[in-house]
Amino acid sequence: MLSRGTRLLRSLNNFGRSLRFCHHQQKSSTLHLPLTFLSEDETAMRDSVRKLATEKIEPFVKKMDEDGKIDPSCLDALFQSGLMGIEVEEEYGGTGVEQFFTTVLVIEELSKVDAGVALICDLQNTVIINAFRRFASKQQKEKYLTKLAKDSVGSFCLSESEAGTDAFSLRTKAVKKGDHYFLNGQKMWISNSEYAKIFVVFANAEPSKGYKGITAFIVEQGTPGLSIGKKESKLGIRSSSTCAVHFDDVQAEVLGNVGEGYKYAIALLNEGRIGIGAQMVGLAQGCFDRTVPYTLQRKQFGKPIYEFQGLQHQIAEIATKIECARLLVYNAARLRDQGLPYIKQASMAKYYAAEVATVTTSKCIEWMGGVGFTKDLPIEKYYRDVKIGSIYEIGRASCRERV
Fold first, then answer.
1. What is the pTM assigned to this prediction?
2. Residue 393 is a catalytic residue
3. At CB < 8 A and 24+ separation, what contacts does 150-153 make?
4. Which of 59, 122, 215, 331 has its CA at 20 to 30 Å from residue 23's CA atom?
């Protein structure tokens, strides 16, 4: 027969084990995976895009940069692989991926090889397709999402010569005649417009109401009065075309509700900032990955320059900055997927990723020495491509204001 003291001791031990078990269960139920942890599906998507970028896009990067246009085979590869309709529902011919985070992974991987090609995919998914999925009618989704997922590039027409960051001061007008609206005006710096088949255009249908008259419209390629103007000869992201777009009494179809275009633009650009952040992270990582191996080969004073402690410290600092930028981008994307507030985090991600990519490309040219300054290697292209990151979408100062 056990003594009273022994029974009490066992009871206390059992109680202690129960407490530890409950504590373990509580910890397990609240355990959060790291931001950089990828599911099997996400890992498979990342790896497949990496393979596509290496095999189908990289061989054309230099020529596309020189010619200032995307190679048709690269665009075909994006469509055939489903990357131009990532979140489009399968019923409309899309890939049917439900997570915005997956789109971010795709943009990051493409940007490691060519940021211009990545931009085409980015705008298609984060802005154009998003606009139709969120604001279009059932009939419009059936008509346009099917085309966008299959073979039609979309173009987002918001900016004007006097309406850049101050986008709501746009002057393009929409006049209703009978049952239809007709657009008149000019848009500037419109990405993908050279080969776009579907345009989402913002115009003011009720100027007396100020920005509350701004409305989103749909215009298809070939509509009378629609013309593509001057193609810009740009510093970087040259595989993505940028042109002016003219509207001369162009008949257009309303997207969503009249007078709510300004709300749509804000919502779309908030998500678009995460995409640009991913583009900058990928660009920085691609440049970094192509440079560091060279530091193991290049010798000075009888040994690889990588062995000098000063350079090791620089490399460590840049690697840390890239990882920090990636965490900001991933966090913003995952917040968006969870339906949580993310606008501040999206601005942080876009701002910081562009800053890090700028420093990274500059340092990589320095580490490469004279050869980094030549066009024999792609490092100088990364350096040119990165500058747009702190300009388009919204600029550096505007990102800070939103933080």
1. 0.90
2. yes
3. 150/79, 150/85, 150/93, 151/79, 151/197, 152/196, 152/197, 152/198, 153/75, 153/84, 153/120, 153/124, 153/192, 153/195, 153/196, 153/197, 153/198
4. 331
